Amino acid sequence: MAIERTFSIIKPDAVAKNVIGEIYSRFEKSGLRIVAAKMVHLTQAQAEGFYAVHKERPFFKDLVSFMISGPVMMQVLEGENAIALNREIMGATNPKDAALGTIRADFASSIDENAVHGSDGQDTAKEEIAFFFSDNELCARTR
Ligand code: RTP
Ligand code: MG
Predict the structure, then answer these.
(1) Residue 90 maps to which CATH number?
(2) Would the CB of 111 count as within 6 Å of ligand 1?
(3) Does residue 62 lie within any of the structural domains?
(4) Is the pLDDT score of 1 beyond 90?
(5) In the chain, how many domains are there?
(6) Over 70: is that where the pLDDT of 67 sits?
(7) 61 is in an annotated binding site
(8) Cβ–Cβ under 8 Å, residues 13 and 108
(9) 61 in any annotated domain
(10) Which of 20, 26, 97, 135 is the most exposed place for a label (fewest CB within 10 A)?
(11) Closest ligand 1 atom to the C-alpha of 114?
């Protein structure tokens, strides 16, 4: 299976709960490696740009307000099948539907405040990584 990179955000609710380390541990235990990371308090323009695909959706305004309500931790994760693997350990969008032991089942409180973001495909992973990280911020982890 191919080595992939995916883009991940620990959202403001999970940063406020002080569980960045717990979530990083889930990534590492699943075999994903962190190859770039930064903590950022997103601007409204950044949040709107990042979630532009949802701009016509009824929840867009609330989503943007939530994403700028506090700092987020963003990272690029690398590993075999990283995109689908990260979605699997995140769990369903609505924590009520998230499988036991997933990040959202354990740390999210609602569909609006659902702890993490993860890219949903190869194209979006590429776009989202490039939206927040330059090439020289991505570190090779094989040695
Ligand atoms: P994400 O993009 O954040 O990883 O989440 P996702 O793929 O699981 O869900 P997506 O459909 O892309 O929606 C993006 C975020 O919008 C919020 N949302 N609220 N109230 C609602 O019906 C609703 N639907 C989606 C969630 O916070 C979701 O993560
Ligand atoms: Mg999504």
Answers:
(1) 3.30.70.141
(2) yes
(3) no
(4) no
(5) 1
(6) yes
(7) no
(8) yes
(9) no
(10) 135
(11) 27
